[in-house]
Task: structure prediction
Amino acid sequence: MSGTGRRNGVILAVCCAALFMSTLDTTVLNVALPTLERNFKASPSGLQWTASTYILVRGSLLFLSGSFSDRFGRRRCFRIGLVVFTAGSIACSLSPSLGVLITSRGFQAVGGALMTPSTLAIIANTFTEKRSRAKALGFWSATTGVSTAAGPLIGGLLIESLGWRSVFWVNVPVGLVVYVGTRSLPESRRDGRPRPFDLPGQLAMTITITALTVALITAPTSSWTSPSVVLMLLICVAGAAAFFVRERHAHHPFLELEIFKVPAMVGAVVIAFVAYIAFAGFLFFNTLYLQDVRHFTPLHAGLWTVPTTAAVLVAAPISGRLLGGRGARLPATFGGLLVSAAMAELALVMAAHTSTWLLFVGYACLGFGVGLLNPPATGASVSSMPPGRAGVAAATTSTVRQFGSNFGVALMGSLVFSVMAAYGTLHSGVELREIVGHRPDSFISGLRLAYLVVAGLGLTSCLAAIWAFDPAKVREPAIDAEHHA
Result:
């Protein structure tokens, strides 16, 4: 291997290691949810916020972080984010209450948001040849999928042996090693005069997503017609309207709406969003199903995600090669079909004592589908923007994934807990594991409905892929660098 090849390999390894660590924390705590419920007497909504806060904050700040990295340097933002993330992990491990843990998760997410766009931007600027870039993006995408899927397994191993706080302590030595590795990273930033920050647009987007999340999480216990839920929905609509008006008329919007005139970009957004609705929602509620309905230990529940993790690991490089050789349409279409089929199969077979093999088929199909979808989404977003805007391109794809994850947990939680409320089994002040243990049929019925809804969404990603990645529609980036200088 040449010196350049070794150097590029080290850069890819450092970026993927940091990405693995920050993405892992979106799901690593899932298997600890029953433990947190017992230790902190957490409500169902409290459990959802434990998972959603990290995803919400990380996703909300990715666009701003992408602009920061383009303006101040990708390597610099990467290192700052790594320090903040590691400090946040220490705070999480020392949390004396659920409220402190949720707050610390938000602080930790700020670091994760600073790191993520920088990793993809550094890779995009390092690997300039088309095929080598496609392979590198395939590894990056595989890291995203595998770290998300591996969270329950790694979390189960740590929780069984060292307790739930260890899932955060492990980030400290890893963070130190990665920080040393950042010395090998090249510094890069956007060429030309830096763009002003669009703080009003950032604020409008954050308010919109937060209000929707609050409405989805609180609706099952307070009803969809309660004043608080209606108010949140109205704020969501107003925030979305303000966001689009701002981005359309701002001289320097942080999200150029004109990029969505490019079909490939639209397709990338849709398939990334749907894939992570399914993936994050499944990983959250599958943990509760395995531990509260089937009474598995955290480690046993984590081991049951191995088929999903392995399938992501196998599928992502295959998808990366297909992307480089044949384009995005084939892997994106089949990936969407597999995600839809997996969720439909799990909805049909879900019961208190479902056969192991039936579950494993659904788990593996879901992982393979998500593994196929990740590289097309990433590749299309990067290819739709000029190299000087690689940070924003990275932020676009990563933000969509994060919002998909956040929306998946909130949407499926709203469906599951609404069905349980309709059964009359969801009561405030009663732990979820006691409710599920007493009436597993209400939880399983809600889970079936949630899985069927997500299966339908999976079909929309197939249609989006067929339309958006039609070779006749694929063009070079429609937004040139001069336009954004």
The chain is about 80% helix and 0% strand. The CA atoms of residues 215 and 228 lie 8 Å apart. Residues 3-186+254-484 form a domain with the Growth Hormone; Chain: A; fold (CATH 1.20.1250.20).
